[in-house]
Amino acid sequence: MARSNKPILWLPFAGGGLVAALIIPVLIMITGILMPLGILQLPYEKMAAFAHNPLGKLILFGTVALPAWHAAHRLRMTAHDLGLGGGAVVKALCYGSAGVLIAAAAGALLAI
Amino acid sequence: MNEDVTLEILRYRPEIDSEPHFQSYTVPYREDWVVLDALNHIKDHLDATLSYRWSCHMAICGSCGMMINGEPKLACHAFLRDYRHAVVRIEPLDHFPIERDLVTVMDSFMEKLASVKPYLITTENKPLGDGENLQTPLQLMAFKQYTLCINCLLCYAACPQCGLNESFVGPAALALAHRYNLDSRDAGNEQRADVVASNEGIWECTFVGACSEVCPKHVDPAAAIQQTKISASLDWFKAQLLPGAQR
Amino acid sequence: MSRRPYVRKVKRSWWLGQRRYVLYMVRELTSLFVGLYCAVLVVGLFRLVQGRAAWDGFLAALSSPAGVLFQLVCLAFAAYHSVTWFALTPKAMPLALRGEPVPARAIVGMHYAAWALVSLIVLVAAGT
What we know:
The structure holds three protein chains of three kinds. By secondary structure, chain B is α+β, with helices and mostly antiparallel strands. Helix content of chain B is 34%, strand content 13%. Chain B has two domains: 4-104, Ubiquitin-like (UB roll); 107-241, Alpha-helical ferredoxin (Fumarate Reductase Iron-sulfur Protein, Chain B, domain 2, Orthogonal Bundle), CATH 1.10.1060.10. In chain B, the strands form two sheets. In chain B, strands 2-1-5-3-4 form a five-stranded mixed β-sheet. In chain B, strands 6-7 form a two-stranded antiparallel ribbon. In chain B, strand 3 (65-68) and strand 4 form a beta hairpin. Chain C starts with 18 loop residues before the first helix and ends with a helix.
């Protein structure tokens, strides 16, 4: 047996779990309930200004990237639990998807 | 009172059976009986061929672990009065090969236990003349709950990862490693890490938590493993930043 | 007498066998909906780049019946993730203060307080 390199996957997973737990529910409340009901507005100017701000970019990136990684790692482990195997295909699908989301988020935020 | 309880017990005698099969027994209901008492009644009066492990009858030796209605329990710790008015299904502990009837093959666990080096590892041999190792109540509190394991293996039966991966080191062994890593007298963390921090060690665990739920001594192996994940991760990053500092 | 140990196979449906395993699977699958919602957020970021019309279209899609339904499902799973995550944190990070272990309830409570605070800050920021 040798020491595993899992920590590189696990620490962002743990961080993502905390970020997701603290921030995702209120975001869904806003975009899924308050905004559709008209209680809150998310006008383009305000959102673009926030995303233009360097701190805003950082917050948006963290909000998307960490939970996405958390989901990828957890779904990879769950695939193994469900008997779908833990091999290269599952790993590629899970971490690859997260990688795409994270790269896309970075790309979009840099372009705003 | 002439009330009875029916037990369905998974039998397997390799010299006769090609496969395990259930056999029914009816025992008298007694208010103060545990399942172990029912098994002893069967062995003494109904069927002497029934095989099972037991010893202390007081939940401290860890011998009589078995699946009772699908839940890993100590037979001496499961009261018949909680199973009245229904058939009690008894099977050997999950995730272990069946040797005979309710007796499982524990060899894999014994190897895993030894592999985590469950003994004090010190940096120097302290001469007897120097006296005892001193430890404050606070230092003892840090690891005491993890000393309470009785190796009953209920946690291995409850853990789905033990079922899915035969080479997973498992809750009890990892909790015991944690017990020594937390002991102020011990300096063996590094030596244990090759097993504990391997893919078959803590990293096989997905924090289902069933192990801690079924533990009769409240050791909380799930907590031990999660705490080890954090310390092992920090050690791993330190090793990346300062190559050559470890080992 | 020869030994012939019998190995019982684990069924693929093992997790349906007990309530605690079903709840575990639900807990793990919360991450699917967290991930899907993150994907939606990334789409939103792209719409923001593409300009006002694209952004308004994104908001309209979020407000559609299908969009709202999807988000309500995500919200339920995300909330279950939060509740289970907070409950497990004291086990992973036991704290001691002045020689006494900090009760698990306090650690969990601090997380709920943080959750409330973060939610309040985001709501206020979105509302102004």
